[in-house]
């Protein structure tokens, strides 16, 4: 039997790490394959991207992924993926490429313009061809 593939986009915030706890709570460690993903949105300044900033962003993204992978070490298959781009688009693209069965994300806490134009989570929910699970910001594991 093929294991269900679970995509967990994380941005390094404590909030995004809640999705890791959620996955550990609901999926036994031998039941899924995990893809941890970090997407860095590039900001163009006068149509230029500074090479040092790209290198720094990638190093930071890979550190975030390694910390998440360590947290999920009880699972037999945990892959990581870092890329640059618009997070909503990249998450959808990766989900299709990897034949992902479930995307697990946390709600955005962003305000202002992002809320008006729609968050990454909203974009993914609207466009995903698989199950999308949204973890509440205040999710905590009950130890009873």
From TrEMBL:
It comes from the Bacteria. Residues 4-136 form the UspA domain. Belongs to the universal stress protein A family. This is Universal stress protein domain-containing protein, UspA family. It comes from Clostridium saccharoperbutylacetonicum N1-4(HMT).
């Amino acid at each position: 039997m093929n294991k269900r593939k679970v995509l967990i986009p994380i941005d390094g915030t404590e909030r995004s790490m809640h999705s890791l706890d959620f996955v550990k709570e609901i999926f036994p460690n031998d039941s899924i394959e995990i893809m941890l993903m970090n997407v860095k949105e590039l900001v163009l300044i006068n149509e230029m991207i500074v090479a040092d900033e790209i290198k720094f962003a990638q190093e930071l993204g890979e550190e975030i992924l390694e910390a998440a992978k360590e947290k999920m070490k009880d699972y037999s298959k945990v892959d990581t993926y870092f890329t640059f781009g618009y997070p909503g688009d990249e998450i959808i693209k990766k989900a299709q490429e990897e034949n992902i069965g479930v995307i697990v994300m946390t709600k955005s806490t962003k305000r202002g313009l992002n809320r008006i134009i729609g968050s990454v989570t909203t974009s993914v929910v609207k466009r995903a061809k698989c199950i999308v699970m949204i973890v509440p910001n205040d999710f905590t594991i009950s130890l009873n």
